[in-house]
Amino acid sequence: AWRASLLYFPEPAQAVLETDGLLVVGPDASGRQVVQAVGSYSALASRFPELDVTHLPGRIIAPGFVDMHIHYPQLDVIGSPAEGLLPWLENYTFPHESRFSDAAHNSEAATFFVDELLRHGVTTALAFATSHPASVNALLGEAQRRSLRLIAGKVLQDQNSPDGVRDETEQSLRDTEALITRWHGVDRLGYAITPRFVPSCSEAQLRGAGELAACYADVWIQSHVAENKDEVAWVRKLYPQARSYLSVYEQFGLLRPRAVYAHCIHIDDEDRALMRGTGTAAAVSPTSNLFLGSGFFDYQAADRTGFLYGLASDVGGGTSFSPFHTMLAAYYVGREGQTKPGLSLSPQQLWWQHTGGAARALGLEGVVGNLLPGCEADFVVLNPQATPLLARKTAQAASLDELLFALIVLGDDRVVENTVISQAGTT
Ligand code: GUN
Ligand code: FE
């Protein structure tokens, strides 16, 4: 059990801070470490007199962050100067991803990547690997060793892709099915069928991906849609009959619950209704969209329609692993479409989008992203005094919103003192 200030969400986007709280963790029937009780120390301590309590005065325990879209082979692509998405892919991303045909490179990058996730307080992620099946084995193998809840997939890209990353249609689908069988549902791991985006996949590859998605209904799907205007124009040329870019994915059976599309910027209300109607989720990636100049996710239109979405780093189009940086960038992006006076997004909404809201969008509500009883015990220990300015600012915070905003605006990996992962077995 842990005694500290506890941040969690009794209701969606409604946070509470229990200033002197107790978090009780223990095994459930299947041996997973889950939250047994959460609340005020004075109310709970007498119910659990036998517990060994770690007391962390001055610290905040909060749900581990959930990153809905990240590319593990793009560590070395972060911050690459390019004119926009398509030149960035061609000049930096594809050359870097081609290095993942090498086993030693895979294993070094996988370890570095998982270390970075944990150092930044990210405990669940939906990740792209590369087109090389070995890149999935390296990443999910590393996540398994660390007991991390990670979902990943081999990228499908059989056209408009250079040698070194381009795969072959039939083989790519056989590889995908073999990887599903090997990894999906093993320990805390999941598999995502991963067509890179429409321009990089032949019709046959998209059709095969859709068939696998129908056959393995609890496997995830991840891709990109409507990120950049040149990309949208390219898809219009490839599919002149399609009503929209998003509708191409629909045509191949790739919109459904557990399908997650990064960006969703240049879409219209019919697309938004299609997202909602099919249970498809958006991974909002504001640092990436600002860095690559892709555009601004329309929060107001999303909320008007009511489809699922959550936050994502999109490293390496994104500029940081830090959930704090991503939440701050989302606040800036929300300002862009703002029509009402006031905050664009409240700090509680931002935090929710990167924890419980992202978990809900992934179909993992009640599993991760919160500290309610039954949730897997993945959490971060935050130090609100990690830097002189943050200590000064948080000491003056007169409300939960002020405290959360201080952390969002001034926070980074220095705030994350410890990341605790739910381990199988007994305490
Ligand atoms: N569209 C297709 N591939 C990619 C990628 O690797 N990153 C981003 N941001 N967009 C893409
Ligand atoms: Fe991406």
Automatic annotation (TrEMBL):
GO terms for molecular function: guanine deaminase activity; zinc ion binding. Its cofactor is Zn(2+). It comes from the Bacteria. Binds 1 zinc ion per subunit. Residues 60-421 form the Amidohydrolase-related domain. One of its GO terms (cellular component) is cytosol. One of its GO terms (biological process) is guanine catabolic process. The keyword Signal does not apply. Keywords: Hydrolase, Metal-binding, Zinc. InterPro entries: Amidohydro-rel (IPR006680), Guanine_deaminase (IPR014311), Metal-dep_hydrolase_composite (IPR011059), Metal_Hydrolase (IPR032466), Metallo-dep_hydrolases (IPR051607). Pathway: Purine metabolism; guanine degradation; xanthine from guanine: step 1/1. It is an enzyme of class 3 (hydrolase). Its EC number is 3.5.4.3. It catalyses: guanine + H2O + H(+) = xanthine + NH4(+). Belongs to the metallo-dependent hydrolases superfamily. ATZ/TRZ family. Catalyzes the hydrolytic deamination of guanine, producing xanthine and ammonia. This is Guanine deaminase. It comes from Polaromonas eurypsychrophila. The lineage of its organism: Bacteria, Pseudomonadati, Pseudomonadota, Betaproteobacteria, Burkholderiales. The gene is guaD.
